[in-house]
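[READ THE FOLD]
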Amino acid sequence: MSAQSHKPLSIALLGASGRMGREVLALLPGNTGFELSGAGCSPEGGLLAQPVSLLQKGLPDLRFDGNPSKAVAGASVAIDFSLPNATASHLDACREQGIPLVLCATGHDAAQLEAIRELSKTVPVLLAANTSLGVTLLNRLVEIAASTLGEQFDTEIFEVHHRNKRDLPSGTALKLGEAVARGRKAALAELAENRIPGSQQLRSPGSIGFSAVRAGDVAGEHTVLFAADGERLELVHKVSKRSTFAQGALKAAQWLADQPPGLYEMSDVLGLN
């Protein structure tokens, strides 16, 4: 859809019954920029074939669908906030119907990432570990800091999330680690270091450490620490409500609708690349 058009962007929401799916649904009633065309969910949620309005009033007369191909039918863009075990079927559905995909699930393995790259050859795909605009900018600032300060500054990435988050480190923490590595013109695999609590292992020069906490209902906090003898720099981002991610996903969907096939990220949406 052209950014000049006043017609609402038709979106299919996959993982619609989950925590983040509900946040997206809450932003749609009365929103003239978007209209919901389909809502996919897994059987585990207990909402299959139930009206979407059970979760959010003011939405179209749609029902939750367990078939991804039916859920995305007729959409201009699909937004996926499901889990990685659903990614393969969602990729297939978007491939079959040529629908751009904003993929917000995290924790994909190497084979899944390769399947995502393969899909991006035929339809636009935006892979977003975090759809917050602030985190997107944080990645760029971290890259600049790493490039400027160099390896004489030890780097540690701290992250805190709610108790139900499964992947550890988070996808966002790993992206921040990649930003540090890019700034140092290296690959994250070469610099990442996971030290075992209680061990006598000393920190390797130039390494990137990760520290993670899962507790309470924390939406997301990330701190990148650059520390040298006598000084330290901390770059911090905190999210106080999950609707921040939902708003970012909608902005990404609107941007992606006008793009050619390719693999994109949130920095493209903000024009940082």
